Amino acid sequence: MAVAATSEIGARPSRAGRRLSAPTWVGTVPFLVYVAIFLLWPTGIVVVDSLKNPTGAWAFSNVTELGNSLVRGYFIGSFKLSLLSSVAGAVLGAILAYAIASGNPDGVVRRLYLAGSGVLAQFGGVTLAFAFLVTIGPVGLLFHASWYYDFPWGIGLIYTYFQIPLMVLVFLPAIDGVKVQWREASENLGASAWQYWRYVGGPLLMPAFLGGLLLLFANALSSFATIIAWENQIAYIVPQQISTALSSEVGLSNVNVADLLALGMVVLVAIVMTGYALLQRRAARWLR
Amino acid sequence: MSALVKAAKAEGTLNVIALPPTWANYGTIISTFEKDYGIKVNSALPDGTSQQEVDAVKTENGTAKAPDVMDIGMSVALANTSLFAPYEVSTWSSIPTAQKDTNGLWVQDYGGYMAVGYSSKFGTITSLNDLLSPKFKNAVALNGNPTSANAALNGVMMASLAEGGTASNIADGVSFFQKLKAAGNFSPVSATGATIKAGTTPVVFDWDYLNLSSYVGVSNWKVFIPANAVLGGYYAQAVNKNAPHPAAARLWEEFLYSQSATGGQNLWLQGGARPVEQQAMTSNGSIDTSAASKLPAVTGSPVFLSPSQSTDAANYLAANWAKAVS
């Protein structure tokens, strides 16, 4: 609030300056062009092509594919895996971030964890799957987890390996923003630890937590290389089936079906985003 | 032939795609061709699939880096004949009629029989049903998803034949894998050289030439082809009709189908693959007999899937595979 007030006073728009300066939206042009080329254009292609047949004619009947029980199964698989790994990753990552934040802000442990998280959040694909395979797979060095191939538990466990560090990275700044004085103030007023978290800490951190959860969900949804390396003889999730639709050697490839599945993922993300926006509005009520 | 060599040398370059150097001896085949003719071979996307080869021909059409020649699976070949230029190599008459297009749009080149490769720590496998025993827990893998990879589809089809089914119906194979899954022996990890070396996939359904101990790099690796389940699979050569190096492309085909001691047919054989002219070469004595004697023994006559049998199998798998094994 104080910051906003200062800047209002500080801003002294001069008439001459306004006439000379370019319209305010000019600065956003590079961003908008970038978004148009790399997001809107490909999305447009996906939408249009998903409604065509391989010869290029319109085929709105493609949409009925989405009602096919097999296709529904891939979407349910994708949703389950993303939900499981994002909730587990967000909760465990948030706890870890809190533990890191309560330590020495300049300490070795914190720097070690942040550097490690930065690396591990990017650890995925064949290397990650293989690391798990030789550690707890069928001939695991450590032990053999018999549920290792059960979907979504096995692959969900592998996903948390990059989800937790990612959550630490995105959630730590929010925890750092929580002032120790707020805790002291609530304790002075007689609040218990539970009451502090229920009425002060929790509501403060909830928007950042939900934002992190959404990021993790999208991260899991679009992951492909890890599950392909881990188990590739059965398609459980949509990206695997998109791969089959694009590159089947046995005559089952159909680019338009791949587009349709991709469109389905766009819709799935849109639904999750809507849910997120509604939750966020509720969680951030205190900000208004 | 000498005019072709001259024209190809003038072009100086050949673009090939999706030829892994360790696959069917392609590393040696490429280097021998380069040495014999002084033509540089650009090998793009060595681990690509047949579909990716065709996609590259389409997307790079008209550019200098478009693939000149393709080595592709039969279903992809039959679906894309409009991209190919007809060409009959000089050894045309040595190629069995069923294994080539009458106009030479595609010609099968090498292949093998579907086999079970396994670590000798399991002893000796004599029947496919041995794989249902508890000692194979989490051990048996295919090379990919059968709705996507040709080798995996043929793995399921071979199980079908071994179970007494016919090539027209893959259902028996799917139920065999369902039994494997129920026994806890099916491993969903896609077999690669790394998983075999690590011991994660100690039993693998794959073509016999990819199940050689020298190919997988494991010394105690054995190969088993069930009796009366000899399922053959051959790849095919095709020339891009808009090849940027048309003469080099045709010279490459001549080289691959050459019966000379260092020609493509014997080089494939040395890589453990069965060259398409094997029978003719055995008759005329040009075959490398020591390489031929190393091929896994088979009982029964080979079965080849017709295009419609492949399509039926693929459609059945699309609807039933995931349900059976997940």
Write the layout of secondary structure elements.
The complex is a heterodimer of chains A (288) and B (326).
Chain A: H1 2-10, H2 15-20, H3 29-50, H4 69-101, H5 108-120, H6 125-136, H7 153-176, H8 180-188, H9 193-222, H10 225-230, H11 238-247, H12 255-283
Chain B: H1 2-11, E1 13-17, H2 26-37, E2 40-44, H3 50-59, E3 69-72, H4 74-79, E4 84-85, E5 107-119, E6 140-142, H5 150-162, H6 171-182, H7 193-198, E7 203-207, H8 213-216, E8 221-224, E9 231-240, H9 246-256, H10 264-270, E10 274-275, H11 278-284, H12 289-293, E11 303-304, H13 307-325
Parallel strand pairs in B: 1-2, 6-7, 9-11
Antiparallel strand pairs in B: 3-9, 4-9, 5-7, 5-8, 5-9, 5-10
The number of strands of chain A is 0
Succession of helices and strands of chain A: HHHHHHHHHHHH
Taken from the alpha-carbon principal axes, the silhouette of chain B is: globular
Quick one: CATH class of the largest domain in chain B? Alpha Beta
- Sheet with the most strands, sense and barrel status of chain B: 9 strands, mixed
In CATH terms, the superfamily of chain A is MetI-like
CATH class membership of chain A = Mainly Alpha
Class computed from helices, strands and strand pairing of chain B: alpha/beta
Helix fraction of chain A by DSSP (H/I, runs of at least 4)? over 70%
Total count of domains of chain B: 2
Name of the CATH architecture of chain A: Orthogonal Bundle
> Approximately how much helix is present in the residues of chain B?
25-40%
Low-confidence stretches of chain B are none
Mind telling me the C-alpha Rg of chain B?
Answer: 20 Å
Distance between the termini of chain B: 55 Å
Question: How much is the average pLDDT of chain A?
Answer: 85
Order of helices and strands of chain B: HEHEHEHEEEHHHEHEEHHEHHEH
CATH fold title of chain A = MetI-like fold
CATH domain fold name of the largest domain in chain B: D-Maltodextrin-Binding Protein, domain 2
